[in-house]
Design brief:
The relative contact order is 0.07. The chain is built from eleven helices and 35 strands. It has a five-stranded antiparallel sheet. It has a five-stranded antiparallel sheet with strand order 2-3-4-5-8, covered by helices on one side. It is of the alpha+beta class.
Length: 615
């Protein structure tokens, strides 16, 4: 008998902080499991329950011989590890031919409907593991119930719902009763045993004693179920009987031709026997391969289900989960022979997981991308850099042209400036700051004029960039691999770092209240009040290129990185998790960018124009 003989339906309730249940089935394994804790614990009860279920699968499928005793021992091994802070109910069922094995861990119940009768065939006791077995008959309906399911729907209440219905209809009828004021640990599996059609067709009625024997068997179905379910008989060692001991060959003299025929027949029998041995050997090898597949892949399939659920909540964590599953498959893939059924299943599973990894690791194409500002017919003629800091879009070029733009890309104001060779731009609500070959400049947005405020800091290869916070100017000193601070109205340099910190090829700076620095190899570092904070990227599959540009602002929820080598903007939460990626061919070799989180826009400079797309 295989799982195709079993029709199945499941009923479970929603978990709470202190209760959880599950109805689980896989290859010839049927389990109902519930957990209850007296109070909310640090580890989520659902997570702990899933771990128990996974351990139960591993113990079961690791068994070479799945008899009643070994299955019971597997359940005992799992229950011994369940914490004392939990009460539990486990009902496990499996079949061997037409025999049903049942193991109940702690409280739990199994009822059966056979013909017109309904009876209890297995009932567990609190804190113990009990085993039962019995013979199945065609049409039997078996219900595996957790303890609280059995309390909520006793047999007399269950019986009317089992009359003349399929397992799916039974489940649909019972579900409303369970979901009325649920505790959260009610679960059940409904099974119906169907004999193979070919097996039923092979049963022939014979006259006389055989007919009588059949009638006796039919009468037996009316006996109480308690007599039907018994423990398997134990046989002592060495009690096997050879069938060949019942036969003796007579002494007969055969002629030459007959002897040849007998020899041919013997060779034919030997050949048949050899083929049978090879077939049996192949069957055993197939069984071992299937067992290996079940032990290794079933847990990974469960992890894939969890990762699929996580994908809708946190793409970064889901990507980590998919990547781990993919690596696990790669580690075991070659242990399966090519062209075997199991290898084909493993390859198909690997392709499915790889597709998930590719989907999450690829950047989404930019949406609503367009030219936001074309300076060709404006006074600035071209744009080399842009910023959105200080709630206004400011564009500038290296020749000193500076304009303030509206949200529609129209020039609102042109700032007069005589200084040239502009290399960096930033701003706050009132002032635009620029790094020029004559020093750091400030431009009042209302007056639209510039003045030199820090003459000693000039646009040279020694300075990687500037930014401002609360009127102070911070200079990314590439030569000394440090950050210099200039307080508002002062031209005196102060060290920002309070600890001994060395930057490695820093190329970009951006400030929200902490200072963020990107280094040439793509590493992002975070500093607060002169000290370095722990920070690392999580969930980024495709490595960053070199020459990246960093951007964030006060009250922004994320930091943003322009990876011009790979044509993408990466959105990163401030805990390091990669939240999203935006791709565009125009982003390749873009020279500057800015982000408006409130207005949900990203701006970037390419070919002397400013482009925008939706965030």
């Amino acid at each position: 008998m295989n799982s195709q003989n079993i029709l199945i339906a499941k009923i479970i309730t929603n978990a709470t902080d202190t209760t959880w249940s599950q109805a689980y089935s896989t290859i010839n394994l049927y389990v109902t499991l519930s957990l209850t804790s007296s109070e909310k614990l640090e580890e989520a009860i659902a997570s702990y329950g899933k771990d128990i279920l996974e351990r139960l699968q591993r113990e079961f499928f690791a068994l070479d011989d799945k008899n009643l005793e070994t299955v019971k021992k597997a359940v005992e091994t799992v229950t011994e590890e369940i914490g004392k802070e939990y009460s539990y109910s486990i009902v496990l069922a499996t079949t061997n031919g037409e025999t049903l094995y049942i193991v109940v861990g702690s409280a739990g119940m199994v009822v059966i409907k056979r013909g017109e009768k309904l009876g209890t065939i297995a009932k567990g006791e609190e804190g113990t593991v009990t085993a039962f077995s019995g013979h199945l008959q065609d049409g039997d309906i078996i219900v595996l119930e957790t303890s609280d399911f059995a309390k909520k729907i006793p047999s007399d209440k269950l019986s009317p719902h089992l009359e003349g219905a399929t397992v799916s209809e039974i489940s649909e009828n019972i579900a409303p009763l369970i979901h009325e004021d649920p505790i959260g640990n009610e679960a059940a599996i409904i099974l119906q045993y169907k004999k193979d059609a070919e097996e039923v067709a092979d049963i022939q009625e014979a006259p006389g004693e055989e007919k009588k024997e059949k009638d006796q068997k039919e009468d037996k179905s009316d006996e109480p179920f308690e007599d039907e379910i018994i423990a398997p008989e134990e046989k002592g060692p060495g009690t096997t009987t050879s069938l060949f001991s019942k036969f003796r060959l007579p002494s007969v003299n055969f002629g030459k031709k007959r002897k040849i025929l007998i020899i041919i027949a013997i060779f034919a029998l030997v050949a048949v026997l050899a083929v049978s041995i090879l077939i049996e050997k192949g069957r055993q090898e197939e069984k071992k391969r299937e067992q290996q597949f079940t032990q290794q892949i079933v847990p990974l399939e469960k992890k894939l289900e969890d990762a699929n659920t996580l994908a809708g909540l946190n793409k970064s964590l889901a990507l980590d989960a998919y990547s781990e599953i993919k690596k696990n498959i790669e580690d075991i893939r070659d242990s399966y022979l090519k062209d075997t059924t199991q290898r084909k299943k493993v390859d198909a599973f690997y392709s499915e997981v790889s597709k998930k990894v590719d989907e999450l690791s690829q950047a989404a194409n930019s949406q609503n991308e367009k030219v936001f500002f074309d300076p060709q017919n404006e006074s600035v003629k071209k744009v080399d850099m842009v910023t959105r800091k200080g709630e206004a879009i400011v564009a500038a070029n290296r020749d000193g042209g500076i304009v303030i733009l509206s949200g529609e890309g129209k020039v609102q104001k042109t700032i007069k400036n005589e200084f040239k060779n502009i290399g960096s731009i930033t701003a706050d609500k009132e002032t635009v700051y620029l790094l020029s070959d004559s020093g750091v400049l400030s431009a009042n947005k209302k007056k639209a004029t510039t003045e030199k405020i820090i003459p000693d800091v000039k646009n040279t290869a020694d300075v990687a960039g500037i930014d401002t916070f609360l009127g102070n100017v911070y200079v990314l000193n590439k030569k000394d691999a440090t950050i210099d601070k200039y307080t508002s109205g002062s031209t005196t340099k102060k060290a920002y770092f309070t600890d001994k910190i060395t930057l490695n090829s820093p190329i970009g700076i951006s400030i929200d209240s902490s200072i963020w620095v990107v280094e040439d190899d793509g590493k992002i570092r975070k500093f607060t009040k002169g000290k370095e904070d722990d920070f690392s990227l999580k969930g980024l599959i495709k490595p960053l290129g070199t020459g990246n540009i960093l951007y964030t602002d006060i009250d922004y929820a994320n930091i943003y990185l322009l990876d011009g080598k790979n044509g993408r903007v990466v959105q990163i939460a401030k805990n390091g998790e990669v939240k999203n990626q935006f791709a565009s061919k125009n982003l390749i070799n873009a020279v500057s960018f800015a982000v408006d989180e409130t207005g949900k826009k990203i701006y970037f400079v390419k070919d002397s124009k400013i482009y925008s797309f939706d965030l």
